[in-house]
Amino acid sequence: MLNDSIHYVQSELYCDDVPVSAIAADIGTPVYIYSLKRILDNLQRIRTAFADVNPHIHYSAKANANLTILRTLINAGAGIDAVSAGEIHKALLVGTKPEDIVFAGVGKTRNEIRYALEQNVGWFNVENALELQHINDLTAELKREPARVALRLNPDITAATHRYIATGHKAAKFGLSIQTVKDLLKKRSQFPHVKLEGIHIHIGSQLHNTAATRRAVEVALECLAPYPEIRTVNIGGGMAVRYSTDEDIPKWEDFGAAISPLLKNYHVILEPGRSLVADAGILAISVLYFKEQGGEPILITDGSMAELIRPALYEAHHEIVPVTKSPSPDTDLNFHVVGPVCESADALGHNISLARMEPGSLLAVLTAGAYGMVMSSNYNQRLRPPEVVVETDGKSWRLARRRETWEDLTATEIF
Ligand code: LLP
Questions:
Q1: For position 329, what pLDDT does the model report?
Q2: Using DSSP, how many helices (H) and how many strands (E) does the chain show?
Q3: How far is the CA of 238 from the centre of ligand 1 (A)?
Q4: Based on the domain organization, do 223 and 318 belong to the same domain?
Q5: Which atom of ligand 1 is nearest to the CA of 206?
Q6: 244 lies in the same domain as 296
């Protein structure tokens, strides 16, 4: 979706004050382009939406782990929500204070737990009784101060979102059942080397209503009721962004309003990912060919499911717009916009209304800043694309990751 940063100036698409075509001419396509200004604006908007509970915001690095983006958010006062030792490593590399990292994840290995303890990360979001035991035992073994732990509750609430990214229903692999949370809280003296100080919920991503989140918070608070000394509630991420003009989603203020009255006297942690970065990023691609098959107009581009897998994996819709608008838009056709990868799932969009495009024309896949580059692959031995940032002044831009080379492609192989 277009916004204040990803916008047209007359018929040219800009990222802040920089024409997308200028970046593409210099760096080539496909290329991810991010507005750092928009990311900071989003951070501010989230802070405002949740102002009543003054949350500590831990950016969910899984949405986009580019080091420049991590550093930008850290410098603006955010912490990090990490789900692997690799994400902790990247967070520390850009100067995140260890105490500002929460370590989440359904399957932390003992080595990852050991690493996180050695690095003194602030919180563990625990999803398994044995994991709690590991943290307890390793803390003792490493002679550390007791680690802070939040139990991740599976509140048995089905979130309104795509089934692949709903996480709060009973049969999901995520979290601990209500009964398990209650049991662990009751016997927490059996874990003397952890400080069980919080509860964590995350019922899904791209949430289409606030009622389920509110209900999940209520269930969490019911679990905590016998333990008034436990004061931290981590409500995860999940705030939705608009991928198309007709997508009906709650405002972030609505999420804030839904949970704030419940959490007045609590220390609140938020783990937003998508909401901070999605609409700050685009994937710029070039048209290679046009063909019509079975009466369907198809644009074949140099962007594919290897660079952006969301449409193939979730049938997610991303708007795709011309970088230079045609002067005669009334000739629009509804295109399939596809990539060169050898499978039919490889499309970036269907039913995309565009004017006829010459080979070499540039397109922009919008709202691609979250779960884009991080989910990219070398499938078909494609080179993963570069990432460009437009700095917060809106004017200067630079490469934040170079395009991969054939050397990168073979660097880890032994033959
Ligand atoms: N906290 C936890 C525990 C999570 O599992 C997630 C996302 C977040 C926070 C951040 O959620 P967000 O604010 O981004 O909704 N690849 C999928 C999304 C997967 C989300 C996984 N967990 C997609 O492209 O839609």
A1: 60
A2: 12, 20
A3: 6
A4: no
A5: 15
A6: no
Pairing of strands 320-322, 362-365: antiparallel
pLDDT recorded at residue 330: 62
Mutate to test the pocket of ligand 1, among 60, 151, 317, 367 (most ligand atoms within 8 A of CB): 60
Q: pTM score, two decimals? A: 0.97
Q: How far is the CA of 354 from the centre of ligand 1 (A)?
A: 31
The gap between the terminal CA atoms of the chain, to the nearest Å, is 45
Would you say the C-alpha torsion 250, 166, 246, 243 has a positive or negative sign?
A: positive
Q: Which of 106, 205, 210, 243 to mutate to test the pocket of ligand 1 (most atoms within 8 A of CB)?
A: 205
Structure confidence at residue 286 (pLDDT) = 98
Regions of the chain with pLDDT less than 70: 329-331
Catalytic residue among 130, 225, 342, 414: 342
- Do residues 234 and 252 both lie within one domain? yes
H-run or E-run covering 336: strand 333-338
In a shared domain, residues 307 and 357? yes
Residue 118 and residue 265 in one domain: yes
Residue numbers of the domain that contains 297: 6-35+278-410
Kindly state if the Cβ of 273 falls inside 6 Å of ligand 1. Answer: yes
The answer for residues whose C-beta is within 8 angstroms of residue 333's C-beta and 6 or more apart is 297, 353, 354, 355, 356
Question: d(Cα 75, Cα 95) in Å, to the nearest integer?
Answer: 9
230-281 tens-digit pLDDT = 999 999 999 999 999 999 999 999 999 999 999 999 999 999 999 999 999 9
CB of 104 closer than 6 A to ligand 1? yes
In a domain, 397, yes or no: yes
Contacts of 183 (CB under 8 A, 6+ apart): none
Going edge to edge, which strands form the sheet with 18-19? 6-9, 12-15, 18-19
Ligand 1 proximity of 60 Cβ (cutoff 6 Å) = yes
CATH of the domain at 400: 2.40.37.10
Residue 95, by phi and psi: left (phi above 0), alpha (psi -120 to 50) or beta?
left
β-pair type (281-293, 362-365): antiparallel
Q: Are residues 48 and 181 in the same domain?
A: yes
pLDDT of residue 332: 83
Indicate if 15 belongs to the active site.
Answer: no
202 lines ligand 1 (CB under 6 A): yes
Answer yes or no: do 384 and 251 share one domain: no
Tell me, in angstroms, the distance from the centre of ligand 1 to residue 100's CA: 19
CA–CA distances in Å: residue 365 to residues 177, 242, 358:
39, 14, 17
